[in-house]
Amino acid sequence: MASYQPPETYEELIKLIHDRYDDMSKSYQKIALYLTQNPNDVAVLSVNAIGAKCGIHASSFVRYAQSLGYKGFKDLQAVFQRRLTTAAPGFDARVRALESELGGAREGEIGFLADLVARDVASLQELLASVDPGQLARAGELLEGADTVYLIGQLRSAPVVELLRYVLTMLGKRTVLLDASGGLATHMARAARATDVLFVVSFRFYATEVVNVAEETAGRGVPILAITDSTLSPYAKLARVLFAVPEHEYTFSRSLAAPMCLAQALCVALAARLQKDGGEPRIPVVTGP
Questions:
Q1: Per-position pLDDT tens, the chain of length 289
Q2: DSSP assignment of 89-116, as one string?
Q3: Prediction pTM value
Q4: What are the backbone angles phi and psi of residue 15, rounded to the nearest 5°?
Q5: What angle do CA 46, 119, 88 make, to 5 degrees?
């Protein structure tokens, strides 16, 4: 057990978790991700319930708390409980409220739809409550000033970067999609310069090629803009601007509603910067009216 004074505030605790994350064991990293992405649950659930949600035995949470200087998990949990007095409702609470607003539980196919709608709306509410306006402004500046925007996202992230490619191209921005097909993404990324931007969209489990491209590109001084799932992701230390959009468990698949909405918002913000006519930002379309 550590002998130093453990963090007393939530902000200090999160900073300590970030500082130690790279040196943690795999199980401790999984605990760290859960704690940082689900602070409201950590505040109100028992250690056994948290362990069941995380897929890790409760005793590991106790040892993890002790590794941070606490006597046990209860002392660590108290930090999250103090935070909860001023925090916005968590994801699960939002879902329950929306389910009630939408008419309660339903059965069959419409039930699947109702569940997904409630969860997607809750994720969008959480996005609006958590995103930093300053980060949005800095992202807009990066995109506006970039000579070329390089986009990379694979697996489940691919639809987000495809949308970005379409909209940025229609805004007249020089855009290059680092597509995995053909095996040339890594080589194409080497053309990026410090006057460009690499826009990364990546969630757990992070595609190896995407991580490698981001590391190599950042190492050459190219600014990184990233949409990911956690401030503990591999891109946290690489990105000039990082948007962490927590992912929550869905019965079928984790949703892209919040990342898609954030990507669209960044495009609208860029349009407002490029179209200096004082009107509403407009996104041109390929097809006419």
A1: 445 689 999 889 999 999 999 999 999 999 999 999 888 889 889 999 999 988 899 999 999 999 999 999 999 999 998 887 665 555 566 666 666 666 666 677 887 888 888 888 888 888 888 899 999 999 999 999 999 999 999 988 999 999 999 999 999 999 999 987 778 899 999 999 999 999 999 998 888 999 999 999 999 999 999 999 888 889 999 999 999 987 766 455 678 999 999 999 999 999 999 988 767 888 877 776 5
A2: P-HHHHHHHHHHHTTS---HHHHHHHHH
A3: 0.78
A4: -65, -40
A5: 60
